[in-house]
Amino acid sequence: MHGLCCALPLMLLLSVSPGNSSTVNPCCYFPCQHKGVCVQVGTEGYECDCTRTGYFGTNCTLPEFWTRLHEALRPTPAFYHFILTHFQWFWTIINNTFIRDVLMRLVLTIRANLIPSPPIYNSAYGYITWEAYANVSYFTRVLPPVPRDCPTPMGMKGPSQLPDAQLVAEELLQRKTFQPDPQGTNLMFAFFAQHFTHQFFKTSGRMGHGFTRALGHGVDLGHIYGDNLERQHELRLFQDGKLKYQMVKGEMYPPTVLDAPIHMIYPKHIPPEEQLATGQEVFGLLPGLMLYATIWLREHNRVCDLLKREHPAWDDEQLFQTTRLILIGETIKIVIEDYVQHLSGYYLQLKFDPELLFGVQFQYRNRIAVEFNQLYHWHPLMPDSFKIQNQEYSYNQFVYNTTMLTDYGVEDLVEAFSKQQAGQIGGKPNMPRQLLNVAVGVIEESRLLRLQPFNEYRKRFGMKPYTSFQELTGAEETAAKVEALYGDIDAVEFYPGLLVEKNQPNAIFGESMVEIGAPFSLKGLLGNPICSPEYWKPSTFGGAAGFEVVNTASLQKLVCLNVKRCPYVAFRVPDGQEGGGAAPSSGSSGEKEPSDEL
Ligand SMILES: *[C@@H]1O[C@H](CO)[C@@H](O)[C@H](O)[C@H]1NC(C)=O
Ligand SMILES: *[C@@H]1O[C@H](CO)[C@@H](O)[C@H](O)[C@H]1NC(C)=O
Ligand SMILES: *[C@@H]1O[C@H](CO)[C@@H](O)[C@H](O)[C@H]1NC(C)=O
Ligand SMILES: *[C@@H]1O[C@H](CO)[C@@H](O)[C@H](O)[C@H]1NC(C)=O
Predict the structure, then answer these.
(1) pTM greater than 0.85
(2) pLDDT of 591 over the 80 cut
(3) What's the half-sphere exposure (Cβ side, CA atoms, 13 Å) at 199?
(4) Contacting residues for 597 by C-beta, under 8 A, at least 6 apart
(5) Which of 85, 141, 260, 520 is the most exposed place for a label (fewest CB within 10 A)?
(6) CA 295 – CA 567 distance, rounded (Å)
């Protein structure tokens, strides 16, 4: 009796819609705004925990005084994007002042603060648990899954059964004609993206969706050294810290699986003497991936030589381990100052300097999120065919082609990939037909893992939810297609939403890809332990010379210090070459891979 007397008024107070739909879990409405946490109370009541959100009220919608002020002054993402991508003369001045550091620190802290750290949820737990924290086999996630007992897959909105994933991909994503990226992005960038991200996007085939095999959860270079110790040992020469290699026509390449007996994924018809062994199992798939594997292998062995000159007394183990840290540093430097710099289109010159964060609160840890994996399916970058010198290769000729790398050599492939334009990622249907099954897989995975709607992610990352399909797509025809599939703007799914969103002017994708992707990316890069005050010092990298290698790394040097003839190398096509079309689609590959393995 006692319990009942007090529970009753509470339930009435909290019930969402008294009288009807009495069994609906109220959290299906996603009632809690501004990162408030929804907790079901009784069967039809809920509470929003607004602690430290800066808001209060039933749904965390009422701003506290300082929040109100802050919100009034906060520029919209579109506004600062405009400023950062215009007024080059202004940025040339800023670039040489202390203001560059101030802005870079601001970029890093504002972005990284959007990522919960330590991580909170995963696909099995939509509430905080020790299991979600401690079991690193899970990808984490920023928003909890849509509760299982909701009326529709997207919570309350949209159809009770989502349109077929294949249909969504065909209607909204499939390329009609190749759309070149207006930022001039090239295939050298596309393959870097693929190579780099596959150290931390490794969905576990054995444990299934929502689980990862890359337990380092970040830039650990598992794609070079393997994701476990056994694999690493097979790849190592155990001499001067070096990795195993083979020489072909006087040049260094990865060893074959005969020499480094590890599991690599190749079709059966390819004999072991043609299968190259790398840290990542799938890199035999494309010559562009094996190209980067080769470049990093050469870099590793080059840095080992350099360290050995500095430290003749060091043993193999110390040379190996220190070289690995140097290559991690080089990777982060190149990703921020070459890769993200290019992608952002910003005139602000980005800077990799961990010391920028030493005065602020920052957690040196990272956990890879399902949402990050989902959004990073940038397959529209891929062309219809691959042009190398005067030859054009179809997907059939390119995929699992084990001789192309050594046929042409590193120089010629770098030059060809640097000069061939990549596709625009968002805004237009640009997913190559040959890769449409990848997009279908992404959509199916997001349903399995019950990802929240695109608009909920917009809100979570500080943007206004879209109120109409027209506002989302900026194009009537696309708007009509999206509406026909989803019916309600609040039911649009995460990945399709990111790709159909209208682009920023002359950019590779829309606002949400940047605003949601950048926080994951920057947190992952700066959250690396080498960026912490204890690690970030010359001795960690074998002294001044090793530290210098990290602090002066660039894409250009990475390639040119490891080849005989320095080719044109960049993440964008040469000036004046933007906007070039490509040959019509040819060939088709029936490769079926786990969703993030291609
Ligand atoms: C809180 O959100 C629910 C669900 O969206 C809504 O029905 C209710 O009116 C909101 N309450 C207040 C006080 O805003
Ligand atoms: C910024 O300054 C650096 C060094 O002072 C210079 O190398 C670089 O070209 C400048 N970048 C821009 C965009 O002005
Ligand atoms: C992590 O969770 C999965 C699923 O419950 C389980 O199979 C696995 O054994 C867990 N891993 C560890 C290290 O406990
Ligand atoms: C692989 O690439 C080479 C060019 O390097 C080409 O001659 C060969 O035909 C390709 N292999 C296949 C199976 O298409």
Answers:
(1) yes
(2) no
(3) 23
(4) 198, 202, 203, 265, 282
(5) 85
(6) 13
Cα separation of 287 and 195, whole Å? 11
The CA-based angle 548-246-334, given to 5 degrees, is 30
Neighbour-count burial for 194-220, b at 16+ CB within 10 Å, e otherwise? bbbbbbbbbbbeeeebbbbbbebbbbb
CA 169 – ligand 2 centroid, Å? 42
Q: Tell me the DSSP string of 272-334.
A: GGG-B--SSTTTTS-HHHHHHHHHHHHHHHHHHHHHHHH-TT--HHHHHHHHHHHHHHHHHHH
Distances from the Cα of 99 to the Cαs of 90, 96, 104, 279, 440, in angstroms? 12, 8, 8, 40, 45
User: Do residues 394 and 586 touch, judged by C-beta distance below 8 A?
Assistant: yes
Which residue's alpha carbon is at the smallest distance from atom 8 of ligand 4? Answer: 397
Q: How far apart are CA 384 and CA 396, in angstroms?
A: 11
Predicted local distance difference test score (pLDDT) of residue 23 = 79
| 68/121 Cα distance (integer angstroms) | 29
Q: Do 287 and 398 touch, CB atoms closer than 8 A?
A: yes
Q: Rounded to an integer, what is the distance from CA 126 to the centroid of its chain?
A: 22
Distance CA 189, CA 380 (A): 13
- Verify whether ligand 3 is closer than 6 Å to residue 137 (CB atom): yes
Number of neighbours of residue 176 by Cβ within 10 angstroms: 10
**Residues in the chain, total:** 598
59 CA to centre of ligand 1 in angstroms: 6
Q: How far is CA 395 from the centre of its chain?
A: 24
CA separation for the pair 470, 462 (Å, rounded):
21
Q: At what angle do helices 287-310 and 187-197 cross, to 10 degrees?
A: 70
The answer to whether the beta carbons of residues 153 and 162 sit under 8 Å apart is: yes
User: How confident is the model over 387-415, as pLDDT tens digits?
Assistant: 999 999 999 999 999 999 999 999 999 99
Residue 118: cis peptide before it, omega within 30 degrees of 0: yes
Answer for the pair 568, 559: CB distance below 8 angstroms, yes or no: no
Q: Please give the backbone phi and psi of residue 76, each rounded to the nearest 5 degrees, phi first.
A: -75, 155
Q: How far apart (Å, rounded) are the C-alpha atoms in residues 567 and 570? A: 10
Whether residue 29 has its Cβ less than 6 Å from ligand 1: yes
Task: Report the b/e string of 404-434 with b at 16+ CB within 10 A.
Answer: bbbebbbbbbbbbbbbbbbbbbbbbbbbbeb
Residues catalogued as catalytic = 198, 376
Nearest CA to ligand 1 atom 7: 16
Closest by Cα among 504, 488, 492, 484 to 456: 492
pLDDT of residue 205: 87
Using CA atoms, how far apart are residues 271 and 512, in angstroms rounded to an integer?
Answer: 45
The sign of the dihedral angle between the CA atoms of 254, 259, 265, 268 is positive
Quick check: CB of 31 below 6 Å from ligand 1?
A: yes
- Over 429-489, what HEC string results? CCECHHHHHHHHHHHHHHHHCCCCCHHHHHHHCCCCCCCCHHHHHCCHHHHHHHHHHHCCH
Tens digits of per-residue pLDDT, 283-333?
A: 999 999 999 999 999 999 999 999 999 999 999 999 999 999 999 999 999
What's the rounded Cα separation, in Å, for the pair 16 and 394?
Answer: 57
